[in-house]
Amino acid sequence: MTFEGRVALVENLECFLRMEAIIPDVPLVINSAGRISDRLIACLARSHFEAPPLLHLPDYDPVGLGDYLRLRDALAGRVSLFVPSDLEERFAVFGNRKLIAEKPRNRALLEQLVGSAWPCEQSRRVFELIKETGSGLEQECLLLKLRMA
Predict the structure, then answer these.
(1) Terminus of the chain with fewer CB atoms < 10 Å: N or C?
(2) What is the pLDDT of residues 103-118, one digit of tens each?
(3) 16-24 contacts at long range (C-beta below 8 A, 24 or more positions apart)
(4) Domain segments of the chain: what residues?
């Protein structure tokens, strides 16, 4: 496939349906419906992006970061991670420790990733926030407003 405009890959159905509330200037949005399948990654890797690279919006947890790294490897730099400018505040307000403590796949992946050098500068801050807070951040929080003091 050849994509002429900006394209986003979104993990969560609610965010997919309300993408214009998160990033209004994305004309094409693909819903991965959770963890990205190898078939979708292979299809995207064969595709051509004429505009900016594919924009990935995952959950901000180890599995979401793992999916981003899989995309990054397969697309050879033709993907960028959506990191909101207020990510630290969102972790403080909406961070969910249960995403790490009660989800074995997240916990195992975090333990595996902690022991190695982080391979991607663009996602390093997300990884550091997960480690520092012991929590993950579900993508739906991008639809919520932060209260201003």
Answers:
(1) C
(2) 777 777 777 776 666 7
(3) 18/143, 21/143, 22/57, 22/142, 22/143, 23/55, 23/82
(4) 2-143
